């Protein structure tokens, strides 16, 4: 069997929520006649989502959303029937946007993004496609930030569901997915020990919190840096050291950025780091570590297996995955665990169906995933685990709805 197909089948057996959704999609065909354009990390879990959408009647065109996150064998296996895949690992900037253009050439009526590059190109370079678009879905924090900025300026011309902003995404994908997959990729790439290391986590949102918690569980001494006083205080009460990135620079042995913002680690921090410091990024775009400064000003002394090594003075600094998303962009990166992506991609699948049904009635802008959809996914997952939960009694429902009951 083709290795890509083997990876997809392995993922499918641990994705019971998407399997149940696919069975309903096969019966009901809610996406019949719909063309879906996708820019996502093309690997096995994404393939299961793509096939679920196709099983619902859609014609799917997909490309990558990061030059280093595509698994070529999975991309090859996806090219079948009404699925068309244009993704390629280690593609150039020109090849990356050529893939996006091929997706848009299919004139999709629904877009699914991870990072918003597809929607951005649609609005800036392929405006001829806009009239036929019902709406879209966005997977990640960085994409939501871009979309909200775009909508705030009145530039977003169709509705987009913020898949990233649901509890099912934050609680599991961001915390457990990023936390485990980033550390797994770091360990597999460097063969370094986590226990006892000073690890600096930049940003204490859901992703940073997951990373800090998982690293501590492995025995790391975790330092958190933040700009939000509330999150910084939360990190302090969670038992982590809190300081500025400049203060942490000479202490850290491993640095992981999770902010989604630009210029977190730059020349002033590099100048303070200890010999052998390892730097990587768990945010979407490769803007958090100033790799360009290192390429220009430091001497590159090695490039192998997802590690770029630099020296200036008597110190070495090592950057993983060119500063890109470490859990997918290193050669041994597998992305988030399968069970986590089952939940996130279930939100994607149901949000796509929702946009097909309601896109014409929604105003341009960023819209929340309906709570009942998010809860449905949790119920399906609980059932697959054999877990049962309580329900409110009529008396409890009446009490919660009442304002007359007091002391």
From TrEMBL:
Residues 174-333 form the S-adenosyl-L-homocysteine hydrolase NAD binding domain. The keyword NAD applies. InterPro entries: Adenosylhomocyst_ase-like_sf, Adenosylhomocysteinase-like, Ado_hCys_hydrolase_NAD-bd, NAD(P)-bd_dom_sf, S-Ado-L-homoCys_hydrolase_CS. Keywords: Hydrolase, NAD, One-carbon metabolism. Its cofactor is NAD(+). Binds 1 NAD(+) per subunit. CDD domains: SAHH (cd00401). One of its GO terms (cellular component) is cytosol. Its EC number is 3.13.2.1. One of its GO terms (biological process) is one-carbon metabolic process. GO terms for molecular function: adenosylhomocysteinase activity. It is an enzyme of class 3 (hydrolase). NAD(+) binds at residues 140-142, 205-210, 226, 282-284, 327, 336. PANTHER family: ADENOSYLHOMOCYSTEINASE. Belongs to the adenosylhomocysteinase family. This is Adenosylhomocysteinase.
């Amino acid at each position: 069997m083709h290795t890509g197909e083997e990876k997809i089948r392995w993922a499918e057996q641990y994705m019971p929520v998407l399997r149940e959704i696919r069975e309903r999609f096969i019966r009901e065909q809610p996406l019949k006649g719909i063309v879906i354009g996708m820019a996502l990390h093309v690997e096995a879990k994404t393939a299961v989502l793509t096939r679920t959408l196709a099983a619902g009647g859609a014609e799917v065109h997909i490309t990558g959303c990061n030059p280093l996150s595509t698994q070529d064998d999975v991309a090859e296996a996806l090219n079948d029937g009404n699925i068309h895949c244009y993704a390629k690992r280690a593609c150039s900037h020109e090849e990356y946007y050529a893939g996006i253009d091929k997706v848009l050439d299919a004139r999709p009526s629904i877009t699914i993004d991870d990072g918003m590059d597809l929607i951005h190109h649609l609005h800036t370079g392929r405006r001829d496609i806009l009239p036929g678009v019902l709406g879209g879905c966005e997977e990640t924090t960085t994409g939501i930030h871009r979309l909200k900025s775009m909508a705030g300026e009145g530039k977003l011309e169709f509705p987009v569901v913020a898949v990233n902003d649901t509890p099912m995404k934050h609680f599991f994908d961001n915390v457990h997915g990023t936390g485990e997959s980033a550390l797994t990729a770091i360990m597999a790439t460097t063969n370094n020990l986590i226990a006892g290391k000073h690890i600096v986590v930049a940003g204490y949102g859901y992703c940073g919190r997951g990373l800090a918690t998982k690293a501590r569980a492995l025995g790391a001494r975790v330092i958190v840096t933040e700009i939000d006083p509330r999150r910084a205080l939360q990190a302090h009460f969670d038992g982590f050291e809190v300081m500025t990135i400049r203060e942490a620079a000479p202490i850290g042995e491993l640095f992981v950025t999770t902010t989604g913002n630009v210029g977190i680690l730059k020349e002033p921090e590099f100048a303070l780091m200890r010999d052998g410091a390892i730097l990587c990024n768990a945010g979407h775009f490769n803007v958090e570590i100033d790799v360009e400064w290192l390429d220009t000003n430091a001497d590159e002394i090695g490039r192998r297996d997802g590690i770029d090594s630099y020296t200036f003075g008597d110190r070495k600094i090592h950057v993983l995955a060119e500063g890109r998303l470490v859990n997918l962009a290193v050669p041994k990166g597998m992305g988030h665990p399968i069970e986590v992506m089952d939940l996130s991609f279930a939100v994607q699948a149901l949000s796509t169906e929702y946009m097909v049904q309601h896109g014409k009635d929604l105003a341009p802008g960023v819209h929340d995933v309906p709570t009942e959809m998010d809860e449905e996914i949790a119920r399906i997952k609980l059932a697959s685990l054999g877990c049962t939960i309580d329900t409110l009694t009529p008396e409890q429902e009446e009490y919660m709805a009442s304002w007359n009951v007091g002391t």
